[in-house]
Amino acid sequence: MTGRADALITACEAGVYTVPTDAPEADGTLAWDSTTMIVVEVRAAGATGLGWTYGSAACASVVSGKLSGLVCGRPALDVAGAWEEMVRAVRNDGRPGAVGYAISAVDVALWDLKARLLGLPLHRLLGTVHDDVPVYGSGGFTSYDDARMAEQLTGWTDAQAIPRVKIKIGESWGTRTGRDLARMRRAREIIGDEAELYVDANGAYTGKQAIRVMTGAADLDVRWLEEPVSSDDLDGLRHVRENVHADVTAGEYGYDLVYFRRMCEAGAVDCLQADATRCGGITEWLRVAAVAAAHGLEISAHCAPHLHAHAAAATPNIRHLEWFHDHTRIESMFFDGVLDPAGGSVRPRLDAPGHGLELRRPDAEKYRVG
């Protein structure tokens, strides 16, 4: 064990993979027909750590052009030191965006590598608090017709017994509120009275508009209202929060602790949302969760559910993971060892070190673009 504990990082590499969606997808403010994943692998003492993010191919250039040189040669177990060096080194590059995504993917790979070197499941290394982590089904894109939405929602509620699901609203930058309300009403009809209904406007509405929409949906018992206005509009989020029944949430675009502290201090959310593939990996995600806890808030993991599962299991104030259609599809295509959300929760593996996922290279290579 001593040799592996003293191991130095010998390689840090990134690959870019673009996967077409299985149908056209759109939310309130964006449409897309493919998703790009950047996969990072770090190596030491014969072990390989695996991390990833979802973003532009530029993330891989950051990994190979700057971050790789910073982490190679460092002790593999010193994840916090590597994270600090990466963050300091990108001062003039700007941490938000592709740079932050790249740091996040490397950090996740480093945590996975550390756990594998120590022969521990990642959540045990981090300190397990929960054996199971609740999930919610997420999709319901504005581009879906009624039949496609029904198929997806019942796949979660009926086939997998997931008791909470989310659809997108705010179509065309909030200019089709009539269709938003009709789709919310149809979603409630599809899932019945027992399942929880969540909605996500992706910042498409104005504050008063969001309140009007939710007033029109008052009989639907919507429990979760995500980004009713821009996540940068903290006053607007707080105003909506004070005037709707649903829990208001935001934070998926946060990149550092200061961002999340401001959101919490502003009273802008009922539950903080954070994404470890953007905010700085598992290292920063756990600190963000602590900021939320200090403000009496729970935290929800945005997208990339297999990446978040172990960190969430080690977080006392976790509410749930987003079982996002795009990402669960790609992660199931690319990795062995994926989790089963049947019953409405996932249980991080105890029978494999790290996060327990292995890259299926032949399947992934079909989509490699860089």
Describe the structure.
The chain is an alpha/beta fold and 370 residues long. The chain is built from 15 helices and 14 strands. The chain has helices at 2-5, 58-71, 79-89, 98-118, 122-126, 146-159, 171-174, 177-191, 207-216, 234-241, 257-265, 281-294, 305-313, 325-334, 361-365, and strands spanning 11-26, 31-44, 47-54, 133-138, 164-168, 196-200, 222-226, 247-250, 271-274, 298-301, 318-324, 335-336, 345-346, 358-359. Helix 3 packs antiparallel against helix 4 (98-118), helix 6 runs parallel beside helix 8 (177-191) and helix 9 (207-216) runs parallel beside helix 10.
Keywords:
single chain; 370 residues; alpha/beta; eight-stranded parallel β-barrel; three-stranded antiparallel β-sheet; 15 helices; 41% helix; globular
Supply Rg: 20 Å
Regions with little confidence, pLDDT below 50 for 5+ residues: none
Summed over residues and divided by their number, the pLDDT gives a mean of: 97
Helix-strand topology string: HEEEHHHHEHEHHEHEHEHEHEHEHEEEH
Number of strands: 14
What strand order characterises the main sheet?
4-5-6-7-8-9-10-11
What is the percent of helical residues? 40-55%
What is the count of DSSP helices, taking H or I runs of 4+ residues? 15
Tell me about the biggest sheet?
Answer: 8 strands, parallel, barrel
Briefly note the structural class of the backbone.
Answer: alpha/beta
Distance between the termini: 36 Å
